[in-house]
Amino acid sequence: MALTGRGWMVGLAAAGVAVGLGIGASLPAQSEVDVDHPVPVSALTTTTLESPSPDCGRLTAEDLALSASCTETFSTRYVLEGVAGEVTLPVTGSHAHIGVFVEDETAQTTLLTPTGGRLPMESVPRDVDPGTALSRAEEAPHGKVEATPRELATQPGIYRLRLEGRERGDDAKAAAPRATVVVNDDNDLVLHSWLTDNLVDARQTTEIHAQVREGGKPVEKVRATARIYHENGTLVLERAMTGLGDGDFGLKIRPLQLGRFGKVILDVEGVTAAGMPFRRTGLLEIASGVAGGRLMRIVGERLTDQGLEVDLEYVVTRAGRFHARANLVTSDGKPVAWAQAAAEAAVGRHILTLRFDRRVLASGKLLLRDLELTDVTEFPGVKSPTRIGTYALEQALQ
């Protein structure tokens, strides 16, 4: 879906803040390795919170796709901040909507078409979002919002926005008005941005990706920059993203210095297949923290009259509540079932049991995958920094 509403401006308001502490970008995370001193299973504490029936269900293809923990957004917009004087605005769609926020209410805004004609602008109440995410009443005590009429058709090409302030003698240049401009260039040229992992343990790597698609096909002639902010609005890092092929641009970071809810603003420029310049802006939120538990290994599997049970060993370094979830698929990857369990656990080693109802099981060899342990003691929950890959269930199904 396209990015809309106030959420945009929360992240964008931080622009212009001086660069703060850097983070290790584009470097692989050094995984913390737990020395696994095996403990007899009989000595471990089973902490699964009991329920009347197994907490599980049939797994759909859509559920399986979502289990990748990939947070993604789609945007046909772009944002320009701190605009002064005259600026060019590339438009590729026939129904682009252009909005301008100027803190100086006396400033004059002129918008010119590619052929030099003047586009009409309408005044928009500050407490109403005109659809261009320019409702900034909470962020600036003064100012005005103007936008092009929604029904107005636009000709693809380069538009020009001119800002002029009221003459104030010798101070005219110093008082030049500045504006934030948002263009919803609504067509099939879409910025797809995603995080490979969200709610990640801050000691681990997460990857930021950006790809522009035109008519569903990747656009190769693109430059992408990521601006990463702490939850308090401080700019932590600004860096060009690396081309990975097939129109994909990526950047690896460890979100150690972003607080609980960091933000990523993606600024993308490029040229369409027809040679038309374009811009796009994307927004992602990174939720992170340090998990108080680590997933260690699978220590048991059995088939009962009720269904399939899988025991997970995990280590707790900070007492709290923990949640585990996993998917069950066939040997060729078809979805079968999902199961989850929760536990209150003290510091130490414990077992959490996932139970799959017999009625949702499929015949043949089954694989356990997408297994994750999340510390849900506080919001948002944080995933264990250690994972277990695809696991073949063999003993229980023999």
UniProtKB/TrEMBL annotation:
<dbReference type="Pfam" id="PF20943">
    <property type="entry name" value="DUF4785_3rd"/>
</dbReference>
<protein>
    <recommendedName>
        <fullName>DUF4785 domain-containing protein</fullName>
    </recommendedName>
</protein>
<dbReference type="InterPro" id="IPR048295">
    <property type="entry name" value="DUF4785_C"/>
</dbReference>
<feature type="domain" description="DUF4785">
    <location>
        <begin position="301"/>
        <end position="383"/>
    </location>
</feature>
<feature type="region of interest" description="Disordered">
    <location>
        <begin position="112"/>
        <end position="147"/>
    </location>
</feature>
<feature type="compositionally biased region" description="Basic and acidic residues">
    <location>
        <begin position="136"/>
        <end position="147"/>
    </location>
</feature>
